Amino acid sequence: MTEQAPIVIVGTGLSGYSLAREIRKQDKDTPIIMVTADDGVSYSKPMLSTGFTKGKDADGLAQASTEAMAEQLNIELRTFATVTAIDAEAHELVVGDERIAYSKLVLAWGADVIRLDIPGNGQDRVFSINDLMDYRAFRQALEGGKRVAIMGAGLIGCEFANDLRNGDYDVDIIAPSDVVMPGLLPPVAANAVQRELENLGVRFHLETVVEKIDREGNGVRLSLANGEQIDADLVISAVGLRPRVELAKAAGLTVERGIVVNRALETSASDIYALGDCAEVDGHVLLYVLPLMACARALAKTLAGDRTEVSYGTMPVMIKTPCCPTAVCPPPTGAEGEWQVEQDGSDVKAIFRGPDGFSLGFALTGRFAVEKQALSKEVPPIHG
Ligand code: FAD
């Protein structure tokens, strides 16, 4: 390592670009190299599940070209460059045959989609959408089609279902759970979202799984464990994400569910940091935008020499199901207490109260979703 080696950031998603922006707010000149496996186009990932509603295709969702980002941020940008290893001792990043020296290395390389190994010859019609390039491929494959089957009833599956209905596609959702978004919403709120999606025309096949996907004409036929068959033009797989930890683990960094970092975003190796979907920050794996923005602000200060710990406030999540606007701030895992529910049809206000009566979380649907800001003030911050 030399004093002159650049800061190297791996990943040009919201974490990587937010961090580069934060660094540049205070330091215009320190050399920064950004390395990314994709095309480096800047976009907001949450917008991927709003394309039809907003009338935008992949190009419409792109916010800035790679060249524009490199210029705007005064950075060197390496695109289609997949990191293959980290040599922590030598302070070098390995990209195939090339070695890139770093003074500080930031891992912002996100999470991988979980892929199910389902039998049948229809796998080439199954799409996972976790970046803009995936979205482009999906939209191209959908041209001329009308029917989409979605595996998974989590946040992403439900958002795509609503968006595809807004684009007038037929939508079937298949999932093993008995409610939508289990683990994120209490059943009363989950049922409200499901009901409104059904009113919009989404068909649910819950408590079952896809056992086989076969080609059928230009599309596929899905065989479900409950005996049903569904014909579709293509399939979205939205069954979950897993922080990318393998390369970090191989380099000797401590990993658990994500790459383990403390509140200063420091990994177990000196001069290596992590944030975003790949990171487990002080025990929290939060695959959302608000946490990564807070991390980017803190880490930029640390990299400038002012070691700063991130402090997570309350982190409500808006679920982009316009047929049933939903906001949720889940209570801490294992928290003692109970849900208190006020309900008017699909308008649900559920507040999770601890034994002392204080609010520890909430789920709001329909007309109650606007109360998100006010209720967020009552919930203690994650880092209290
Ligand atoms: P990513 O955006 O995944 O970026 C990872 C980067 O690392 C990419 O540039 C990739 O090419 C690069 N990379 C990976 N491996 C390598 C390698 N080996 N070498 C080099 N480069 C590599 N969150 C919310 O808070 N609100 C929402 O409403 C919301 N909606 C969402 C809707 C959808 C459809 C999805 C998929 C997610 C949504 N999220 C939402 C989650 C949020 O978008 C993510 O938490 C966030 O975008 C993650 O950003 P990231 O930069 O950490 O990871």
From TrEMBL:
The keyword Membrane does not apply. Coiled coil: none annotated. One of its GO terms (biological process) is phosphorelay signal transduction system. Keywords: Cytoplasm, FAD, Flavoprotein, NAD, Oxidoreductase. It holds the Pfam family Pyr_redox_2. Residues 1-69 form the Response regulatory domain. It comes from the Bacteria. It is found in: Cytoplasm. Its main location: cytoplasm. One of its GO terms (cellular component) is cytoplasm. GO terms for molecular function: oxidoreductase activity. Its cofactor is FAD. Belongs to the FAD-dependent oxidoreductase family. This is Rubredoxin-NAD(+) reductase.
